[in-house]
Specification:
The complex is a heterodimer of chains A (about 550) and B (about 200). With about 550 residues, chain A is an all-alpha fold. The two termini of chain A are about 30 Å apart. The longest helix of chain B has about 30 residues. Chain B has about 200 residues and is an all-alpha fold. In chain B, α3 packs antiparallel against α4. Classes of the chains: A mainly alpha (about 550), B mainly alpha (about 200). At the A-B interface, α5, α6, α7 and α16 of A face α1 and α5 of B.
């Protein structure tokens, strides 16, 4: 008995017309194809969001620059933030989860394949709706305009008085639609991981990636829903003339802040927990050791999930809450650092004494460890209320959260790309180009975001379209912008490497990394049904047991 | 293409996991609860903050009859499902129809109440904060009732042509969880809007 794929003779199959290929991708309910669709959607938006960031950095390269107008600059930072969070980070995380979770738990598909496809197309539709604002923002009779209210869209800026035309309508409807898609995806993740595990795959034997996606899915259910509710309220205000956030009729602008950040802060953990998941799979394989402290990792993940629901108002210290609320949210914010620190020690413990292989995925993971640590430390600094009062809304905050999102989440995602690319495509990437991408991106990242802290400390507020000379900000802004071009070059190398490897890379085989989880037991790319026969597992590392029958993993 | 050999060494025949339908519905209910919580918080936060009338105590009347109808539909859907387990299709159809009818009466009562508020009392969604929060919260619940009624009606039609049998018990159980959830939400909405808010 084996799980060998049933031999489909690909060589003899006649090439299908392109319309049939497109039709098969559009109508697919296969979790692997939907995963790849999510990832491709995210990559398209990553390039768009990156161009928006580049436009902003070029505008800020010297004082009194006239590269873009102030109005256009406002649209750029709004669209950059919204795009990167909702249409890059979320879909890419869902894409990898979709692709990997069923393979790792020995299932043939997600629990609800059609809901899965529905969720993806809602997300794609939401993104299209957001970008339609560029041509439909003022309606059909004038030039279009994108939303310019900032990615957290504080009231009363979003009211019909201050947001004339339809740009904010596109923003709220786009996020409402993609939010419903996210809830569908989250239902699927939780149901899949609880109900679809193969025999022997107890919760204690699940790969950490599955555990962390379970926590992520559960969090999305409770995190995206408040945003959806708030968007419904905003839509009621804008379309039906309601007064939820209309301060003139007694409504409250602060209520929107609370609702937005009840979504907004746990959302960071929704994105970073899957990044932890990638690190937890990649670091052991390239250290040739099992993960250190598996149960503690699970407990820390669940702990982060819980605590992250109690930290949202640290985004609002400058609003003027009372001292009890300030103390509470400062404390919880610092507490979240504890399980996160435990994780960092566990990854170091995994690497400690291992035979490290510095392949491209591992390089990205190691950079993640350093950068995530620094991001966490500036987070602790900002959790101190008096410090926060001084620096809230400055470039220090911008540098801090880009350290999390780029330095941690994006680096982990690049690691995941290189690690699972052979499985998804069946071909190896080019290692030299991978390393070139890594070094370009590391240099660019540190040039941009290390030096971005300094103008923040010197008092440069975020979201300004230009600044006066002579405040000591010029040199730092210049360095930040130079870093962007290194990052862009890195992305170009990345895309070129993947495209070239996809066409002419050498065949990867089913298990190029000598790894231990179930996805490497299928062919690369896996057949549509994943496993010809449902596997049975007896430990956390089923492929280790298979390769070393004399020394099976002990169930701890 | 050869895949690595993976032999099931000890087949664990006793491998059972929770049903995905139930887990999926519980997830959906968790997400829906979060949406309702935000609307309820907004309602509570805005009680007494309207800058102009009409105020809740002037216009709201306790919808006792509608509440009794909706809450008893939770009992009748349970009776329908136990009739299905006992393989009594007639009793199933009867109780299922009663469930649908009770839900429909509730929705009708809401419609009558809204008509009265809009045309007799002059309260619309744009009148004041009370109007905005009231129509949003009650309307959000009513839209869930409508979804539930569509699902109930679909099953009713299938059962009238004899297409519902004991093998569908689990799916109908999942549907009934949704209906119970809609009822439970009404208890909260009733308490918040008609007791606390008045």
């Amino acid at each position: 008995m084996s799980t060998d794929s049933i031999a489909l003779n690909a060589v003899n199959a006649a090439p299908r017309p392109w319309s049939a290929v497109v039709h098969s991708w559009v109508t697919t309910v296969d979790h692997k194809r939907i995963g790849i669709l999510y990832i491709l959607l995210a990559l398209v938006f990553l390039v768009i969001g990156g161009i928006e960031a580049t436009i902003m950095r070029i505008q800020l390269i010297v004082p009194h620059n006239h590269f873009v107008s102030p109005q256009f600059f406002n649209q750029m930072f709004t669209m950059h933030g919204t795009t990167m969070i909702f249409f890059v980070a979320m879909p890419i995380v869902f894409g990898f989860g979709n692709y990997l979770v069923p393979l790792m738990i020995g299932a043939r598909d997600m629990a609800f394949p059609r809901v899965n496809a529905w969720s993806f197309w809602l997300t794609a539709f939401g993104g299209a709706l957001l970008y339609l604002s560029f041509i439909g923002g003022y309606g059909l009779y004038g030039a279009g305009a994108a939303p310019d209210v900032g990615w957290f869209a504080y009231a009363p800026l979003t009211s019909p008085t201050f947001s004339v035309g339809h740009s904010t309508d596109f923003w709220t409807l786009g996020l409402l639609v993609s939010g419903i898609g996210s809830i569908g995806a989250a239902v699927n993740f939780v149901a899949t991981i609880i109900c679809m595990r193969c025999p022997g795959m107890t919760l204690g034997r699940m790969p950490l990636l599955a555990w962390m996606n379970l926590v992520m899915g559960a969090m999305v259910l409770l995190v995206i829903s408040p945003l959806t509710a708030a968007q419904i309220m905003l839509a009621i205000d804008r379309f039906l003339g309601g007064h939820f956030f209309d301060t003139q009729a007694g409504g409250s602008a602060v209520l929107w802040m609370h609702f937005f950040w009840i979504f907004g802060h746990p959302e960071v953990y929704v994105l970073v927990i899957p990044a932890f998941a990638f690190i937890s799979e990649i670091v052991p394989v390239f250290s040739r050791k099992p993960i250190f402290g598996y149960p503690v990792m699970v407990a820390a993940t669940v702990g982060i999930g819980f605590v992250s629901f109690g930290v949202w108002a640290h985004h609002m210290f400058t609003v003027g809450m009372n001292s009890y609320a300030n103390s509470f949210f400062a404390l919880t914010t610092m507490v979240v650092g504890v399980p996160t620190g435990i994780k960092i020690f566990n990854w170091i413990g995994t690497m400690w004494g291992g035979r490290l292989q510095f392949k491209t995925p591992m390089l990205f993971c190691i950079a993640f460890l350093f950068q995530f640590l620094i991001a966490g430390l500036t987070g602790i600094m900002l959790a101190c209320v008096p410090f926060n009062w001084q620096l809230s809304g400055s470039y220090f905050v911008v540098a801090h959260f880009h350290y999390v999102i780029v330095g941690a989440i994006l680096f982990a995602l690049f690691g995941a790309f290189y690690y699972w690319f052979p499985k998804m495509s069946g071909r190896m990437y080019n290692e030299s180009f991978g390393k070139l991408h890594f070094w370009l991106f590391v240099i660019g990242f540190h040039l941009t975001f290390d030096f971005m802290h300094i103008p923040g400390l010197l008092g440069m507020p975020r979201r300004i379209y230009t600044y006066e000379p002579g405040r000591g900000w010029e040199i730092w802004n210049l360095i930040c912008t130079i870093g962007v071009f290194f990052q862009a070059a890195g992305i170009l190398v990345f895309v070129a490497n993947l495209a070239r490897s996809l066409l002419s890379g050498k065949l990867a085989g089913s298990d190029p990394w000598d790894a231990w989880t179930l996805e490497w037991s299928t062919s690369s790319p896996p057949p549509e049904y994943n496993f010809a026969q449902t596997p049975t597992v007896a430990s956390r590392r089923p492929l280790w047991d298979l390769k070393h029958p004399e020394d099976p993993d002990l169930d701890l | 293409m050869s895949a690595t050999l993976l032999t099931p060494s000890t087949l664990e025949s006793q491998w059972t996991l929770p049903s995905r339908g139930r887990v999926g519905m519980f997830c959906l209910i968790a997400a829906e609860s979060a949406i309702f919580i935000i609307f309820v918080v907004a309602y509570l936060f805005y009680i007494g903050k309207s800058v102009s009338g009409p105020m809740p105590r002037d216009v709201l009347v306790l919808p006792i009859f509608a509440t009794i109808c909706l809450l008893s539909s939770s009992i009748t859907i349970h009776l329908a499902l136990s009739a299905l387990t006992r393989e009594q299709p007639g009793a199933f159809r009867l109780w299922w129809f009663v469930t649908f009818a009770l839900g429909a009466i509730f929705l009708m009562e809401t419609g009558i109440e809204w008509h009265h508020l809009i045309y007799d009392k002059g309260l619309t969604i744009r009148t004041n904060l009370f109007g905005t929060t009231y129509y949003s919260l009650v309307g959000l619940h009513a839209s869930h009732v409508i979804v539930g009624l569509v699902l109930l009606l679909t099953v009713l039609m299938f059962s009238l042509v004899g297409r519902v049998s004991t093998e569908h018990k689990e799916r109908l159980d999942v549907l009934s969880y949704y209906w119970h959830f809609v009822d439970a939400v009404w208890v909260v909405v009733f308490f918040v809007v008609y007791i606390l808010g008045r």
